[in-house]
Specification:
Helix content of chain C: 10-25%
Mean pLDDT of chain C: 96
Shape of chain A: globular
Structural class of chain A: alpha/beta
Helix content of chain A: 25-40%
Structural class of chain C: alpha+beta
Order of helices and strands of chain A: HEHEEHHEHEHEEHEEEEHEEEEHEEEHH
CATH architecture of the largest domain in chain A: 3-Layer(bba) Sandwich
Largest sheet of chain A: 8 strands, mixed
CATH class of the largest domain in chain A: Alpha Beta
Mean pLDDT of chain A: 96
Strand content of chain A: 25-35%
Number of strands of chain A: 18
Radius of gyration of chain C: 38 Å
CATH superfamily of the largest domain in chain A: FAD/NAD(P)-binding domain
Number of helices of chain C: 22
Largest sheet of chain C: 7 strands, mixed
Chains: A alpha/beta (418), B mainly beta (86), C alpha+beta (1018)
Oligomer: heterotrimer
Number of domains of chain A: 2
Low-confidence stretches of chain C: none
Distance between the termini of chain A: 44 Å
Number of strands of chain C: 50
């Protein structure tokens, strides 16, 4: 199969591109592994990759119910950033962002990480102060942040409404220049290929139907393709975390909610950074193919349906038009939904569980994509060492009982409000 | 678009309602020492029929107990909270 | 002008009396009313209309409908420009302007077509393997990305705001029929006979569907008679609403179908007071889907050249638009239907060189009709390559053996039009959106709708009943069934009839053999330039699930969402995998069915109607006074009242602060949430809501209260007054007014329904104004009809009053007076019914004239509360506990309340939590900044990141609110600092790295003035 490079593609051009082999194997499951990761999305595949690469665990398998990257990895709006205020989040997401910066090379797969900047707009002085608090915290944590004036925002996002008519005038914004977007599918495929090359078995169409626990210890899993033994099992199935955890008898501080995303017809470059509206639920960026990718708030009710309803689409578009009146003439090409694990404080859970050998990676709310490499990195550490890394120590499951929640929005224990 | 059969107003579009949350939760009695953590934090989160509370904010302002399939969005029953969905 | 060289002398449904002028790429042409831009371009002999996405290959008009992958144009111009618009769906109007897109410098000479020369080096997904570079950073990629973004995209949009308006409508009906072709019309006719409300929608300019395009007979006469009769009858029926130009694009829960009506898109611009488009949300008891089918192409070398067209589309151009898209025609097909196109084009005067039928057995009954006309049919042959670059010149063909493999020598036929047909695929978008899983029917060679998940049924071509006779019969039956299911008596009605035609089955054969010696690209997805070899490359690399195929190659990701490419693409993948197409499944259909303008989804609630501004009853007074505004949620509130032009914000609020502290001021506080709570258990309820006790509060008294969330964190604060034995008035912060009302409703209705309490929001019912300052009592005494002495109306008193004053003989205004204070001064808050707010305000201003009363705004209000160390929004940030805010002593130990238990969790009672403190600059001069962080005074200047092994700068706290105390003569601030209360007097460093600001600060008590609280009792 060989390395991916411009040379291998050129060589392929002379031979009809027939020299390419499978990006990853299609093995049958073995009867036992040292560790199993349930969920072949970005997080599960990244965990497998780092377990194999950094912790020497190569007799491991990733079990995927459908096709790899078919869950939220392939449904999100591809934004990558580390602009968090609370320390328990900030250091973790910054680790992830640093991994993104070298990810294409590390995987030998172009994940198209584009550091085009993530800009949060402010529409009042109070909001500017709120952003300043976050931006100052970022800077003191060694993370890049800039506070933009209204005129600086205009240079970054000229299509916003700077007229007298704007219902919520733009006061300024908080910019993270190193933030941006990546190609979501490529992240799953790149991790899958790289993990496979280190010997990891990636098994698609293999649904986990039970988790075997004997005397408080994990011994393996039941799957649609038969039982598989393993001393360590990691769950990376955001959206369905509660369903899987229930198989091991765990009840979690998570509800599954519906989040919709939308894409317009492809256009020549229209917006060059990621922009979020501060007076409504709307954020937008443009894919390399040209589509404007945007989204907003949760539909608001528990759902596993992976499809949403029109009122939220209308609401998000209204917010979009309020910010960018020229959107009206452009057309919506597709809208779709994903299932979000919403935790009670809006932050993820990565760590150990009360069941020995069972590890949990979930509760990503709607921010899991950007965490993909960092999540795999710390989860691999946690699984290999049987203890959290300092970067995910604050993201433990027991934080809720202790009251040590990580509530970036200060919205409280109502999942739909985060 | 979901449609909820409000026991007081009749069938109405979801836009008139706000989702409140899991309708099976029971707050510990006033004065009780235990059960608050489970009440506030833990959820069954079923994929399938789910009893939940919606608030008819742009209508009668009453709360409605709805049984809805979270996998399909099918509305299975509505009723008054506490009386169980019927 | 006589440019319409391909226009037939007669026939078609265009109005030759109405000649319309339009331009394409600057060239002026004419067409007729009833044309689409596509038909008019074809009439004018324009074959090259677009360039493809990746290779910039020349492209022509491929279809006659919404499935068009190629002919996307940039319609109109300026602020109304619409990129990526399908020429096949643009009704022609006089003055239409369109241009081609994705080409430079021109459509004819497109330099980016050089991509074709390197095509072999840029297969599907090449970008995943390249552009990375060996260095661990994103710089190289971003340089490439810059170029890729410019090359990609299709049309160019604009940043100029769209001037047009959009509208929304809701409708309810018993039976909604989607699609106005023969099946839909028959269904609507049958359902309407029941008397129920029926809505029929169709995306085209007029009803008829394929009846408009085909030469067919119904009930023994030309179908156009039946069409005219039925449309007229439905139009006349009072229970039927007909919506043409209306695309049903999304099928949502509980039978809600969203449609967009193009009200004015057939005009150069919308007439005054008319919307451009209207979004319909239609809730139906029963739905009949009669959405028809989409013809699929065949896949062979250079099958994308201008002059290659779907067979059914060519028939539409001839029969409906009176345009002959070619004169020497070859038809290539895997089914019988394409024979109709050959026959119709022949009858319109074209020369049919041959019908290439991939089936060894050829067609059924239609073969005879072709033979009658002398049309040469080659059975068991396949098209293999188009010759000609900008236009079709010849088609090369090969004979197939029994296995579909090529055999014998390659032959070629001269032609200027190649019609292709790979059979018809039901339009399953809407049925699939309901969650119904499409099922493969190997016999018909198509996906059929799955078992219904909602109250819908499919009829006609979208259910696999492709022949007219089936459409009519199934539509009729579906209409009757839907009416019956919706509760009507099944109407007695004869079904319309058409003759059945004996057809032979479609052969499941799409990809044709490679040509001999003259390779060419075999396009599967025309819009996104996905070829058969791309699909095989995906297979080779393991991207074999249909979703991986789509995502890796971009198959079906264009604006047409694969309407003419998914099936051939899946077929090629299935063959490579050695499985049936049914085993590969199909990708999920996502709404919308065709692209929808965002303006239609936004509707009229844009501009000032987006989250409309809330104004207090005194708003016009503030306007007249020339105040500066500040947004407070949806409200606007006076920020300050400049004394003269150009008075700065700082000068103004300091002046207003001094005026209040020195004499008296008036502030509009209407926006605070007000909730009326009544009932015998109201006191008990308040006891549960608030952390402090309420049962001992006497009638006529107010009390400050603090509420927690269930998790023990502060939710809101405010004063609540006891107005009667069982009657309380609660106030909330402006920001939380709605949330607290919902919180109360939930607890009264769901958690404690046994409590006898009713609550309702009265925020809008009352105007509220604060009168604050040492002379407040003197101001009020003459105009309030009650004793305001300290004895009669002490601090925290509350009760009814009447406001006198006003013009001679003016009636008193009934109201409520509260002796509460946010500023820390002697202060009263007057509430009057909202309608009297403006009048009451004026009376108070008049009464205050002798005392130099000033109106004061939010800045002065906020500044005074900072001087007094009162907490507000910046401190109540959803993460602070009562104890953090120095209010822990309010938590009653004698009773239970919301949040009491979880507030005791270990992390919430840690002694090193951030606590509420005051802050002053050490130098006594430098202003402090909200949003700044507080670090140790000797903390390093630069931070490292923990993730890279560096050392961040430890944050000990942050600044929440800042102001300037004129009384103290220096800046002041409030903040939260770890163990802050033990650290009064300590120095910290205030850091604001976003502006490179460092200020040494000292921790002080948060109450800056009148610490004993004497003034409020004054």
């Amino acid at each position: 199969m060989g390395e991916y490079s411009v040379w291998s593609v050129l060589r392929g051009g002379l031979t009809g591109q027939t020299h390419w082999k499978r990006a990853w194997r299609d093995p049958d499951p073995k009867p036992a592994y040292d560790a199993i990761i349930v969920g072949g999305g970005g997080h599960g595949l990244a965990t497998a990759f780092y377990l194999a690469k950094l912790h020497g665990m190569t007799n491991i398998a990733v079990l995927e119910k459908g096709w790899v990257g078919g869950g939220n990895t392939g449904r999100n709006t591809t934004i990558v950033r580390s602009n968090y205020m609370l320390e328990g989040n900030a250091h973790f997401y910054e680790k992830s962002l640093q991994l993104w910066e070298g990810l294409s090379q590390e995987l030998n797969y172009n994940v198209m990480f584009s550091q085009r900047g993530v800009l949060n707009l402010a529409h009042s002085d109070a909001q500017m102060d709120g952003y300043a608090r976050r931006g100052n915290a970022m800077r003191l944590n060694g993370i890049d942040a800039e506070l933009l004036t209204r005129e600086q925002v205009r240079a970054w996002a000229p299509m916003c409404d700077f007229s007298e008519r704007a219902r919520f005038p733009i006061h300024g914004g908080l910019l993270q220049p190193r933030g941006g977007t990546a190609r979501h599918d490529a992240v799953a495929w790149g991790f899958a290929r790289a993990a496979d090359r280190l010997g990891v078995d990636i098994i698609q169409n293999c649904e986990v139907t039970g988790i075997d626990v004997v005397e408080g210890r994990v011994t393996g899993v039941q799957t649609s393709r038969g039982p598989i033994k393993a001393k360590k099992v990691g769950l990376a199935v955001a959206g369905h975390t509660t369903q899987l955890a229930q198989m091991a008898g765990l009840r979690l501080p998570i509800e599954s909610h519906l989040l919709q995303a939308m894409v317009s017809e492809p256009l020549k470059p229209w917006i060059d950074c990621v922009v979020t509206f501060g007076a409504g639920h709307f954020y937008i960026s443009q894919s390399d193919k040209g589509g404007l990718v945007f989204g907003g708030d949760l539909d608001g009710y528990n759902s596993f349906a992976q499809r949403g309803n029109l009122p939220m689409v209308e609401h998000v578009v209204q917010c979009g038009v309020a910010l960018m009146p020229s959107l009206k003439r452009l057309r919506l090409l597709r809208h779709w939904g994903g299932v979000m694990d919403m935790t009670m404080d809006g932050s993820p859970i990565i760590g150990k569980t009360p069941v020995e050998g069972l590890y949990l990676n979930g509760g990503w709310c709607y921010g899991g994509f950007k965490a993909t490499p960092g999540s795999g990195w710390v989860f691999a550490y946690t699984m290999a060492q049987d203890r959290p890394h300092e970067l995910n120590a604050a993201l433990s499951l027991d934080r809720f009982e202790r009251g040590a929640v990580l509530d970036e929005r200060g919205a409280g224990p109502t999942p739909g409000w985060h | 678009m979901l449609r909820i059969d409000c026991p007081w107003c009749g069938p109405r579009d979801m836009v008139e309602f706000t989702y409140v949350g899991d309708g099976t939760l029971r707050r510990p009695e006033i004065g009780a020492e235990d059960g608050h953590f489970d009440y506030v934090y833990l959820r069954d989160n079923p994929k399938g029929p789910h009893v939940e509370i919606w608030r008819h904010g742009v209508g009668c302002r009453r709360h409605v107990a709805v049984t809805r399939d979270t996998a399909t969005h099918e509305m299975l029953a509505t009723g008054k909270p506490g009386e169980g969905a019927s | 002008m006589t440019g319409q060289t391909n226009r037939l002398q007669e026939g078609g449904r265009i109005d030759r009396a109405q000649r319309l002028s339009f331009t394409f790429d600057g060239a002026t042409m004419t067409g007729y009313a009833g044309d689409t831009l596509a038909s008019a371009l074809l009439a004018n002999g324009v074959s090259l209309v677009a360039r493809s996405f990746k290779y910039h290959r020349p492209r022509g008009i491929f279809s006659a409908g919404p499935e068009e992958p190629n002919a996307l144009v940039r319609l109109r111009g300026g602020e109304r420009v619409e990129p990526n618009t399908r020429a096949t769906m643009i009704p022609l109007y006089d003055g239409l302007v369109a241009e081609s897109q994705n080409r430079w410098p021109s459509l004819g000479l497109d330099l980016q077509a050089a991509n074709q020369l390197i095509a072999r080096f840029i297969p599907a997904g090449f970008y995943y393997k390249t552009f990375m570079g060996p260095w661990s950073n994103t710089k190289l990629w971003m340089r490439f990305e810059h170029a890729i973004r410019r090359a990609a995209g299709m049309g160019a949009g604009t940043h100029a705001p769209d001037p047009d308006d959009y509208d929304k409508m809701s409708a309810h009906c018993e039976v909604l029929v989607i699609g106005g072709g023969p099946a839909g019309l028959a269904a609507a006719r049958a359902a309407a006979a029941s008397g129920l409300r029926v809505v029929l929608v169709d995306e085209r300019e007029e009803f008829g569907g394929r009846l408009l395009f085909d030469r067919e007979e119904i009930d023994g006469a030309h179908a156009s008679h039946w069409l005219a009769e039925q449309t007229a009858a439905l139009e006349a029926a009072p229970n039927v609403r007909l919506l043409s130009r209306t695309t049903a694009f999304g099928y949502y829960d509980q039978n809600m179908v969203a449609c967009v009506e193009r009200v004015s898109d057939h005009l150069i611009e919308p007439p005054p007071h008319r919307p451009r488009q209207r979004l319909w949300t239609i809730r139906a008891k029963e739905v009949v889907l009669a959405t028809g089918a989409i013809e699929q192409p065949l896949v062979f070398a250079d099958n994308d050249r201008p002059g290659v067209m779907l067979a059914g589309a060519a028939r539409a151009y001839v029969n409906h638009y009176g345009v002959l898209p070619g004169r020497k025609v070859v038809v290539a097909t895997n089914n019988d239907d394409a024979y109709r196109s050959a026959i119709d084009l022949h009858d319109a005067g074209a020369s049919i060189e041959s019908i290439i039928d991939v089936r060894p057995g050829g067609a059924g009954a239609l073969a005879a009709a072709a033979k009658e006309r002398g049309i040469n049919v080659l059975r068991g042959y396949a098209p293999v390559k188009v010759q000609g670059r900008r236009k079709v010149r010849r088609l090369a063909i090969l004979k197939l053996d029994a296995d579909g493999k090529p055999t014998g020598a390659q032959r070629a036929a001269d032609c200027d039009l190649v019609l292709v047909s790979g059979g018809w695929q039901p339009t399953l978008h809407l049925s699939s959106q309901t969650g119904a899983k499409a099922m493969w029917d190997a016999e018909k060679g198509c996906f059929l709708p799955g078992p219904p998940r909602q109250r819908e049924r499919s009829a006609g071509a979208c259910a696999g009943g492709f022949m007219l006779a089936e459409c009519l019969a199934q539509g009729h039956a579906a209409g009757l069934e839907a009416a019956e299911a919706a509760g009507a008596v099944r109407p007695e009605l004869e079904a319309p009839r058409a003759a059945a035609v004996a057809e032979k089955p479609t052969r499941l054969y799409w990809e044709c053999p490679e040509p001999i010696n003259t390779p060419g690209k075999k396009f599967v997805d025309h819009q996104d330039d996905v070829t058969a070899s791309d699909v095989r490359l995906a297979h080779r690399e393991g991207y074999v699930s249909v979703e991986h195929l789509k995502r890796y190659t971009t198959l079906g990701m264009g604006t047409d969402q694969g309407k003419t490419s998914n099936i051939p693409g899946f077929a090629i993948m299935a063959k490579a995998r050695g499985v049936e197409i049914g085993a590969t499944g199909t990708t999920t259909f996502r709404p919308p069915y065709t692209p929808v303008a965002l303006g239609a989804l936004a509707g009229p609630e844009v501009g000032e109607h987006y989250m409309p501004l809330r104004r207090t009853p005194m708003d016009s007074w503030h306007v007249e006074r020339g105040c500066e505004w500040i947004d407070a949620g949806l409200w606007r509130r006076p920020r300050y009242y400049p004394a003269h032009d150009g008075e700065s914000l700082f000068d103004a609020y300091i002046r207003e602060t001094k005026a209040v502290r020195g004499a008296v001021g008036l502030c509009d506080v209407t926006t605070l949430g007000k909730i009326d709570i009544q009932g015998p258990d109201a006191g008990e309820f308040l006891n549960r809501l608030y952390i402090n006790g309420w049962k001992a509060l006497p009638v006529g008294k107010a009390r400050y209260g603090l509420m927690l969330r269930e998790d023990g964190v502060v939710l809101d604060d405010g004063t609540t007054s006891r107005l009667g034995e069982h009657h309380y008035l609660m106030t909330t912060t402006t920001a939380n007014a709605v949330r607290i009302m919902a919180w109360i409703d939930y607890h009264l209705q769901v958690v404690w329904p046994d409590l006898k309490v009713k609550a309702t929001s009265v925020t809008e019912q009352w105007a509220a104004m604060a009168v604050a300052g040492p002379t407040a009592r003197r101001l009020l005494e003459p105009v309030i009809d009650r004793d305001l002495s300290n004895e009669a109306f002490p601090f925290m008193a509350a009760g009814p009053c009447r406001l006198l004053g006003g013009e001679e003989g003016a009636a008193p205004i009934p109201g409520r007076l509260f002796r509460i204070s946010f500023s820390g001064e002697l202060a009263y808050e007057l509430n009057v019914p909202a309608d009297y707010g403006h009048e009451a305000w004026e009376r108070l201003m008049a009464a205050g004239a002798p005392y130099d009363v000033v109106p004061y705004g939010m800045e002065a209000l906020g500044n005074m509360r900072i001087e007094k160390g009162h907490v507000a929004g910046p401190e109540l940030d959803g993460r602070t506990t009562a104890d953090d805010l120095g209010l822990g002593r309010m938590m009653s130990s004698k009773k239970d309340f919301i949040g009491a238990r979880l507030a005791r969790r270990e992390d919430l009672v840690r002694p090193d939590r951030k606590q509420f403190v005051g802050l002053v600059p050490v130098d006594g001069r430098t202003a402090l900044k909200q949003g700044a962080q507080l670090v140790a005074k000797d903390a390093p200047a630069t931070a490292g990141t923990l993730a890279a092994g560096g050392t961040p700068i430890r944050m000990e706290g942050h600044v929440t609110s800042t102001g300037f105390s004129p009384e103290l003569g220096h800046p002041i601030a409030l903040g939260l600092v770890g163990r802050g209360r033990e650290r009064l007097g300590e120095e910290l460093s205030m850091r604001y790295p976003l502006r490179d600001l460092t200020v040494p600060v000292r921790i002080v008590d948060p109450v800056f003035i009148d610490a004993e609280g004497k003034r409020v009792h004054g």
